């Protein structure tokens, strides 16, 4: 039976129609979580009531720090005031507010019915601003609690970071932003660090690649592997001819989970939730965390997170991993993000194998001695329960977020690091193992590989902090190849080939595009079986290049690497094809473009470029007209100095000059977002209708 409609106050009116139709009852869920004492008795009604409330819309201002700050000021100074006195159907609609705990006020939330977004002119305008800025990657629509793990990861531009279960990529984007913290509003720094984002689901890795393209990074690689069995990445040991295993400074394990913390958004969970949902995931979660421990370098840090409230997927996983790997400890994060309301991790929990959630067991022994069906017993392990010495593990250092605390979803975060005392003594042993590993040829035959059990062996330290490599761990690869992974057996990605810096096509591209001598031309790669500079050129940083050159891309199921910066542009019949700078790659290459080659634009010219697809050069005001007419056909960069408070200064945009016309080389959505930002309205669509592709089409036909 659907819940009867309750008396509707303004706040209640904010629920969606869907919420009214869902029966927000599940006795199994209530019985199970009451037995876990996840919240004190007196908080239970508030907790349950919060689960039944519509989740506010939350978003984060993303992208490079400078762009984010400018956009954030626009929200604060332009949008919020215009949304502050909105009355819709007689009711006051509150404007967006900043999420108090998110650094620099860059995250926002608002809670308005969809009807208001559709019909209130002020909110409609704000909504389209959000939609377009989301499309171009300046805004990330993300649940507030999902923004937490990267904040606890504390990533710096030189860190080697792994995101083990990364798709669809909202946290990957946050990590990329942290790696690129030194970017400016117009140019992307090339961090010396690395982000290796992985997901076992191949379709989802493509979603991840699409999402990550919004912040183009030469430091990004995407792989499609089972994280619990992730193979070693081989890298040369600096100053020697040997190879070691790449170890990471930061690892995020945002593991697959039952997801009941998202019940306010995914209302189907009310109907389907079973107390045993988390039991089956526990083993995989432990294996992923253990693998992360083995991939972590000295002074490294792991963040383990789930959007589940279930201790079997949370504290039990952390406890089991800590017990297997005593050189790790939980980090006390209680003073980080002081405005975030949280609860400590549990030290007591009572798993169940009973579908109703009514019968729970304090210990594994009690469970084994119970009358529960033997087949159900076989599905549980001791690790589902709190260990005997649970008090020694500091589990209260884990962090639980409940919906009633700050009007969010439910979430769990634990931060782990190697204990200080464990680091030193292991170094000698590591050195020896490194020496053993260095005997391996690049692609060692299976029999010659080390006989270690990577997920269970004692944790390792790096041979030297500066190297951050450990001996190669071949058995993970062995497991990898033995097991027909769920990533799918066929791998159809193209190979990655670095062009020689003197490749004639690359040289001609560099020359024509006025790229300066400090451009890392030996880090340009192509993706086709022949290794030809045929269509697109990608830029990778040094560490990405080292990994690609020393690891079989099929073995690591490498799905993306670096960022696309140049693409071949067919220039019409009889004209030689040339490379152009891609809009999305421009921030990456702009530091290498000869400033003298950049054309100075003006706001009126920008307006013409946004409004029309292929405006004639003769239609532009002077001196822009004369400047562009004097330029050869091909790719050019224009700098538009914008002084208004609401816009970015020094907007750099790529254009293509044909015989008689110009084209702004950014996609439709980026054009709309730009138009809204600079001109306060989307003038690009109107232009599209008024100016069909006539000029360019004519040129193409000629
Ligand atoms: C909670 S989601 C990750 C969300 C992601 N971190 C984000 O913020 O957008 C869990 C992800 O784990 C992936 N996954 C499941 N099993 C995995 C495994 N064994 N290895 C790697 N990824 C796995 C799923 O495909 C899913 O994309």
UniProtKB/TrEMBL annotation:
Where the record annotates domain SAM-dependent MTase RsmB/NOP-type, the positions are 47-419
- The active site is formed by 307 (nucleophile)
- Name where it's found: Nucleus
- Keyword Repressor annotated: no
Whether ATP-binding counts among this entry's keywords is no
User: What keywords tag this UniProt record?
Assistant: Methyltransferase, Nucleus, RNA-binding, S-adenosyl-L-methionine, Transferase, tRNA processing, tRNA-binding
Annotated segments matching region Disordered: 423-499
**Main location per UniProt?**
nucleus
Q: Where is the signal peptide?
A: none
GO CC terms of this entry: cytoplasm; nucleus
Question: Where, by residue number, does S-adenosyl-L-methionine bind?
Answer: 165-171, 199, 226, 254
Residue ranges with Basic and acidic residues bias: 445-460
According to its UniProt entry, one GO biological process term is: tRNA methylation
- Quote one Gene Ontology molecular function term: tRNA binding
As for family, the record states: Belongs to the class I-like SAM-binding methyltransferase superfamily. RsmB/NOP family.
Q: What is this protein called?
A: S-adenosyl-L-methionine-dependent methyltransferase
Native organism = Gymnopilus junonius
Lineage, please? Answer: Eukaryota, Fungi, Dikarya, Basidiomycota, Agaricomycotina
């Amino acid at each position: 039976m659907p819940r009867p409609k309750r008396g509707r106050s303004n706040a209640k009116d904010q629920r969606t129609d869907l919420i009214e139709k869902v029966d927000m009852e599940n006795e199994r869920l209530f019985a199970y979580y009451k037995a876990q004492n996840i919240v004190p008795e007196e908080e239970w009604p508030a907790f349950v009531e919060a689960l039944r409330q519509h989740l506010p819309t939350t978003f984060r201002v993303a992208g490079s720090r400078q762009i984010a700050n400018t956009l954030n000021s626009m929200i604060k100074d332009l949008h919020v005031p215009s949304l502050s006195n909105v009355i819709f159907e007689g009711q006051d609609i509150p404007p967006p507010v900043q999420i108090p705990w998110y650094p620099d006020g860059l995250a926002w939330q608002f809670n308005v019915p969809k009807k208001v977004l559709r019909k209130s002119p002020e909110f409609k305008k704000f909504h389209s601003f959000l939609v377009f800025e989301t499309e171009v990657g300046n805004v990330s629509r993300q649940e507030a609690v999902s923004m937490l793990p990267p904040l606890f990861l504390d990533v710096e531009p030189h860190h080697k970071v792994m995101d083990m279960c990364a798709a669809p990529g909202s946290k990957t984007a946050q990590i990329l932003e942290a790696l690129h913290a030194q970017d400016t509003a117009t140019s992307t720094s090339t961090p010396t660090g690395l982000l290796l984002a992985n997901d076992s689901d191949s379709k989802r890795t493509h979603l991840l690649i699409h999402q990550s393209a919004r912040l183009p990074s030469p430091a990004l690689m995407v792989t499609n592997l089972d994280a619990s069995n992730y193979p070693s990445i081989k890298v040369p040991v600096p100053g020697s001819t040997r190879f070691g295993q790449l170890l990471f400074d930061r690892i995020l394990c945002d593991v697959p989970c039952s997801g009941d913390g998202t019940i306010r958004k995914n209302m189907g969970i009310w109907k389907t939730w079973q107390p045993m949902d988390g039991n089956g995931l526990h083993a995989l979660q432990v294996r992923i965390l253990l693998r992360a421990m083995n991939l972590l370098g000295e002074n490294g840090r792991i963040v383990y997170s789930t959007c589940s409230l279930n201790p079997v997927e949370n504290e039990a996983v952390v406890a089991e991993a800590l017990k297997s790997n005593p050189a790790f400890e939980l980090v006390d994060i209680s003073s980080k993000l002081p405005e975030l309301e949280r609860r400590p991790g549990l030290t007591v929990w009572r798993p169940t194998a009973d579908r109703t959630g009514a019968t729970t067991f304090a210990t594994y022994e009690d469970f084994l001695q119970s009358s529960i069906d033997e087949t159900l017993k076989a599905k549980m392990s001791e690790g589902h329960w709190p260990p005997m010495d649970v008090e020694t593990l500091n589990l209260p250092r884990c962090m639980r977020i409940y919906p009633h605390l700050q009007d969010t979803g439910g979430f769990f975060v634990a931060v782990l690091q190697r204990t200080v005392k464990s680091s030193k003594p292991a170094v000698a042993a590591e050195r020896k193992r490194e020496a053993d590993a260095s005997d391996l040829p690049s692609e060692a035959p299976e029999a010659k590989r080390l006989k270690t059990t990577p997920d269970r062996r004692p944790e390792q330290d790096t041979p030297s902090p500066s190297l951050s490599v450990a001996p190669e761990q071949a058995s993970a690869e062995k497991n990898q190849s033995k097991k027909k992974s769920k990533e799918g057996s066929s791998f159809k990605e193209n190979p990655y080939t670095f062009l020689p810096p003197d490749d004639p096509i690359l040289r001609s591209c560099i020359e024509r595009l006025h790229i300066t001598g400090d451009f890392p031309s030996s880090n340009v790669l192509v993706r086709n079986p022949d290794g030809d500079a045929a269509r697109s050129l990608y830029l990778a940083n040094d560490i990405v290049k080292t990994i690609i050159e020393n690891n079989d891309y099929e073995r690591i199921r490498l799905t993306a690497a670096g960022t696309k910066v140049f693409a071949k542009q067919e220039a019409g019949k009889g004209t030689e094809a040339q490379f152009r700078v891609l809009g999305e790659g421009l921030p990456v290459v702009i530091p290498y473009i000869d400033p003298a080659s950049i054309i100075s634009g003006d706001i009126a010219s920008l307006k013409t470029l946004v409004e029309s697809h292929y405006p004639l050069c003769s239609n532009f005001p002077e001196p822009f007209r004369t400047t562009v007419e004097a330029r050869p056909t091909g790719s050019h960069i224009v700098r538009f100095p914008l002084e208004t408070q609401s816009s970015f200064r020094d907007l750099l945009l790529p254009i293509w000059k044909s015989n008689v016309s110009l084209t702004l080389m950014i996609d439709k959505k980026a054009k709309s977002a730009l138009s809204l930002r600079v001109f306060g309205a989307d003038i690009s669509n109107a232009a599209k209708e008024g100016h069909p592709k006539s000029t360019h089409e004519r040129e193409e036909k000629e």
